[in-house]
Amino acid sequence: MANGMILVMILLHFLPRFQPEPLISDFYSRLTGKKPTDLRSFMLRESAKFEQF
């Protein structure tokens, strides 16, 4: 792979890390009237589906 292409890929991967974290939208809560599930709860609830793979 050309050196220029490698440099571009590195920049595309790392530059977003130096930007501020985006705000989290409350759209799901407003749309459904429910609080979003956190990742841990989701993984515990759906763990049987992940074990199939």
Topology (SSEs and partners):
Layout: H1 3-14, H2 27-32, H3 39-51
Question: What structural class results from the helix and strand content?
Answer: mainly alpha
Give me the strand/helix succession: HHH
**Number of helices, where a helix is a run of at least 4 consecutive DSSP H or I residues:** 3
Average pLDDT figure:
90
Radius of gyration over C-alpha positions, nearest whole angstrom: 19 Å
What proportion strand?
A: under 5%
Task: Kindly state the number of beta strands.
Answer: 0
- Helical coverage, percent range: 55-70%
Residue runs with pLDDT of under 50 for 5 or more positions: none
Distance between the termini: 33 Å
What shape does the CA trace take? flat
Largest sheet: number of strands, sense, barrel closure:
none
Which properties best describe this structure?
mainly alpha; flat; 58% helix; 53 residues; 0% strand; 3 helices; single chain
How would you describe the overall organization of this protein?
The protein is an all-alpha fold. The chain has a domain at 26-53. The chain has helices at 3-14, 27-32, 39-51. The two termini are 33 Å apart. The mean pLDDT is 90.
How would you briefly describe this protein structure?
By secondary structure, the chain is an all-alpha fold. It is built from 3 helices and no strands. The radius of gyration is 19 Å and the shape is flat.
